[in-house]
Write a structure and sequence with these properties.
By secondary structure, this protein is α+β, with helices and mostly antiparallel strands. It folds into two domains: about 5-65, no CATH class; about 80-130 and about 160-270 and about 280-360, Arylsulfatase, C-terminal domain, CATH 3.30.1120.90. The protein has 13 helices and six strands. It has helices at about 5-10, 20-30, 35-45, 50-60, 70-75, 75-125, 165-170, 175, 180-190, 310-330, 335-340, 340-350, 350-360; strands at about 190-200, 205-210, 220-230, 245-250, 260-270, 280-290. The strands form two sheets. It has a four-stranded antiparallel sheet. The protein is extended, with a radius of gyration of 31 Å. It starts with a helix and ends in a 32-residue tail after the last helix.
């Protein structure tokens, strides 16, 4: 008999099944040594009753983090050996941390080698250097039938470098474009370069945005620093690499009434009563508004024992996602984002791996206590008991 019916018709009369009745029916069948098929039938019955399923989910939610009973079911000698394996796992984590630190040193080495390339790229974009014919000798697959560019067309003499290069690159990157508001566009037109500077120990990196002189702020550059954890926390049984610790923004020195992170509303009010009736005054209201430049005022990483609200966690995720894209994709591959070709590469590679990497960089990832599986059911008769033979027809 289905679980729902078994519980609902216990008194001979069909009625709505409560969570307690369903649980009692499941417990009775489980104590009777139900087979795998029985458990499958019970699950199917529960799925047909949304009220019971929702109530069960609510109660099971309170069991998160509790022991599944596996370790408790093991003989003392086996527990001892499992503890030895866990201690060996700690040794493996130590080696993994050393490996990651070696990789970090290798990254720093090649970052130094790349800097001259990025510096030359910057001078071409800004118009400070005109590439030679040899340097322009690159053929795209779609340019096979195109004649080499040997002469500048009439009217192009006034074009300096590659105008609005970084604005175009940002707008072609979905993660960054999502943060750009209409009122940010004019400011970003004056962006001349974006580069990454790593600390000598690799424990932090700075994203630097260089601007030409503009009407919005007086700063020649804006920067944001990200601090990285290169070592696992004490006692961690898993270490998949560096994770973000925190980030520090910078103060933007906006010119008067040019702060795009705030909206200024002016309203004229007229006095209706009293001696000053008929006179007017102007009230100015300043309210925060969404802007790309809020990137430089990041959310703070909470303390270890501080509970993080969902909205704050989402803000941190967005901040670290932006950092990852700028550091690993947009800055090193800027020309491909400018042309839009980077999107084709992104589609080919997919983004599931990137999401997993980012989840880890935020300090998430797999649960360290793999043995505490909420779906684990100890074998009937305890650990080591003979299991039913698997028969094949």
């Amino acid at each position: 008999m289905p679980v729902a019916a078994e519980a609902g018709e216990a008194d001979g009369v069909e009625h709505e099944v409560s969570i307690d009745e369903a649980a009692a029916a499941i417990a009775a069948r489980a104590s009777a040594g139900g087979s795998a098929a029985d458990y499958s039938t019970m699950a199917a019955d529960l799925a047909k009753n949304p009220a019971v399923l929702a109530a069960l989910q609510a109660q099971l939610g309170g069991l998160e983090g509790l022991s599944s009973g596996l370790m408790e079911s093991l003989p003392a000698s086996v527990k001892r050996r499992v503890k030895a394996l866990k201690k060996m796992q700690l040794e493996q984590v130590t080696l993994e941390a050393q490996y990651q630190q070696e990789l970090n040193l290798l990254d720093l080495k090649y970052d130094a080698l790349k800097k001259p390339v990025f510096a030359k790229r910057s001078t071409i974009i800004s118009g400070g250097y005109e590439p030679t014919e040899e340097e322009c000798d690159y053929a795209d697959e779609e340019d096979e039938d195109e004649e080499p560019i040997t002469e500048v067309e009439e009217g192009e003499d006034d074009i300096k470098g590659i105008p609005q290069f970084w604005l175009q690159a940002f707008q072609n990157c979905p993660v960054i474009e999502e943060a750009i508001e209409d009122h940010d566009v004019e400011v970003l037109r004056s962006l001349t370069d974006v580069h990454i500077d790593y600390s000598s120990d690799g424990k932090s990196f700075q994203i630097v945005f260089d601007f030409e002189e503009n009407e919005f702020f007086t700063d020649a550059s804006l920067s944001k620093t990200y601090h990285i954890n290169l070592e696992p926390a004490e006692g961690d049984l898993i270490f998949d690499g560096p994770s973000y610790a925190s980030s520090d923004g910078c103060t933007i020195n906006w010119n008067k009434d040019m702060d795009v992170t705030h909206k200024v509303t002016k309203k004229t009010q007229r006095k209706k009563k009293g001696p000053a009736a008929g006179k007017t005054r102007t009230v100015t209201r300043v309210d925060p508004q969404p802007s790309f430049f809020r990137f430089f005022d990041p959310p703070k990483q909470p303390e270890d024992d501080e509970e993080m609200e969902e909205e704050h966690e989402a803000a941190l995720f967005q901040d670290y996602e932006m950092a990852d894209f700028l550091k690993d994709k947009v800055v090193p591959r800027a020309v491909l984002w400018f042309t839009g070709e980077a999107l084709d590469y992104e589609d080919e590679m997919g983004d599931e791996e990137d999401e997993d990497d980012l989840a880890h960089m935020m300090g998430g990832g797999d649960d360290d206590d793999d043995d505490e599986d909420p779906d684990y059911v100890p074998p009937a008769g305890g650990f080591g008991a003979e299991q039913p033979e698997c028969k094949q027809s």
